[in-house]
Amino acid sequence: MGQYVNLQSMGIEMQDDGTLQINSSNLSAALSNNFADVQKFFQSASPKGWGQMAGALMLQLTDPTLGPVAVDINGLNQTNNSLTNQINNFEVRMAGVQQQLFSEYSNLNTLLQQYPLQMQQVAAQLASLPSANTSSGNQG
Question: Domain residues for 86?
């Protein structure tokens, strides 16, 4: 691979936040003075160059069945399906509760509408009963 064993040796450094920062004078010197070694670092077949290793790692990461990206996507899809099913079941239960409450409200409303008529009937029946004073006065 020559004198370049990593990106840092060419003037490319990873920062704490994961970004890359280029030391342009070091990279320029590497490209000007040792272009073949820089090229070997990225493209070498034996040992594998950085580009080949990065490509192999990317293939592993993006494998449609075993790669962590696919596994995460499948997990998220399963979670999404589960949540959708829970929401649908909840909506069905709420529709049942709504229907039950509507039925109870309708029954209560019917009873409340009949209440004044029942009160009038009770009042009429109470008025038609002989009063206690009238009964005792007739007996005397």
Answer: 68-125
